[in-house]
Amino acid sequence: MHLDQPLTDKEFNELDKFLLSERCADDGMAMDSLHGFLTALVIGPESIALSEWLPHVWGTESKQAPTFKTEKEGERIIGLIARFMNEIAITMEVAPKEFEPLFCEFEWEGHAVLDGEAWAWGFWEGMSLRAEAWEPIWESPLAPLMRPIYLLGAEEIEEEEMPLVDTPLKCHKLTVEIEAAIPE
Asked: What is the pLDDT of residue 39?
């Protein structure tokens, strides 16, 4: 397995199916939240070892790896996650304008809307691993660009901010802003 190769559609679906399986905790990450999480790790101010961040993928309750059928399966799944992360890193390095957050889409009142909450939550989780190192961004010119990630991804927001995310359409608008919010 070449760690610099992007996931094929088949591998993407394999990883997605595994993450959604009963062998993973209910609060484990799905592909959209994993993409946000890995994006934060890639562009973050400090490197974080796989041994530190991988338990967060499996869920906040157990933080233990799922039960793999075999050691080989475990190596494969972790390898797919590493390749998914490397795909993000290579895109950010080589063609940052080609980067696209992984959002879900659904229909609401006859309109197709994007749902960036899971992606933003994953990004926020990634930031939380080095919250102090991320602090300067809130005092920088990038702070307004981070606002959609905060509004959609933080566990809690201020009561006066709730009207900004109280409908799927408002969340859709914030989701559209996220792509521009990723610092290069």
From this structure: 96
Q: How far is CA 46 from the centre of its chain?
A: 17
Judged against a pLDDT cut of 80, whether residue 2 lies above it is answered with no
Q: What is the dihedral of CA 157, 134, 125, 161, to 10 degrees?
A: 10
Cα 59 from Cα 65, distance rounded (Å): 9
The interaxial angle of helices 31-43 and 71-94, nearest 10 deg, is 60
What pLDDT, on the 0 to 100 scale, is given for residue 65?
A: 78
Domain C-terminal end among 98, 116, 145: 98
Its pTM surpasses 0.85 = yes
Domain match, 173 and 123 both? yes
Cα 184 from Cα 169, distance rounded (Å): 27
